[in-house]
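User: quick one, sequence for these C-alpha cells?
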C-alpha cells in the first residue's frame, strides 16, 4: 500500500470516527469467512460499521479523534465496530462474543471516554434508538387517543340514554 493510500485510509477512518458516538474494539483471530460475513451483516443491519484494521493505521486515525485514549487496545488482530447509535455496535458485538469463542470484545469508547467490558455489556442491554423512538411516539400518541375516546364517550352516553328511554316507553305502552 502506498503512503498516499495509507493517508487516505487514515483520514477516512478519522472522519467516520468523528461522527460516531461509540466504538467497540475486538480480537477476531480464527473466525471463518462465513462467521465474518455474518458479523458484518448483523452490524450493517443494526446501522453500525465493522472494519478489520491495521493497528498502526488505526492508532494514527484514533489519535486525531475523541477516542484517542483507546490506542493501547490495538494489539494483535483487531477489528472495530462503530456507529452514531451508541447501542448498536455494543449490542451486536456482545451477542457475537457470546456466540463465537474466537471473537472477543476487548474494550471500547463512548462519547470520547474509554470504557471497559462492564460498560460495554451495559450498553448492549439498553434499547436501540429505534426502540426508544417507538416508545416516545407511543407516549405522545396515547394522550391523543384518550382525548378522542373521551370526546366520543358523551355522545355514546346520550345514545344509550335515549335507547333506554325508548325501551321504557315501549314497555309502558
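Assistant:
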Amino acid at each position: 500500500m502506498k503512503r498516499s493510500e495509507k493517508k487516505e485510509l487514515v483520514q477516512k477512518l478519522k472522519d467516520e470516527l468523528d461522527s460516531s458516538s461509540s466504538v467497540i474494539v475486538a480480537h477476531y483471530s480464527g473466525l471463518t469467512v462465513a462467521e465474518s460475513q455474518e458479523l458484518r451483516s448483523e452490524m450493517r443491519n443494526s446501522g453500525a460499521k465493522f472494519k478489520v484494521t491495521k493497528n498502526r493505521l488505526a492508532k494514527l486515525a484514533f489519535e486525531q479523534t475523541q477516542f484517542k485514549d483507546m490506542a493501547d487496545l490495538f494489539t494483535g488482530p483487531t477489528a472495530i465496530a462503530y456507529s452514531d447509535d451508541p447501542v448498536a455496535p455494543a449490542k451486536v458485538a456482545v451477542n457475537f462474543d457470546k456466540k463465537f469463542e474466537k471473537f472477543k470484545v476487548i474494550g471500547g469508547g463512548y462519547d470520547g471516554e474509554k470504557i471497559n467490558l462492564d460498560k460495554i455489556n451495559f450498553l448492549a442491554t439498553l434499547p436501540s434508538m429505534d426502540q426508544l423512538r417507538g416508545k416516545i411516539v407511543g407516549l405522545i400518541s396515547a394522550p391523543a387517543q384518550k382525548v378522542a375516546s373521551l370526546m366520543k364517550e358523551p355522545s355514546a352516553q346520550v345514545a344509550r340514554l335515549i335507547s333506554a328511554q325508548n325501551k321504557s316507553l315501549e314497555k309502558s305502552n
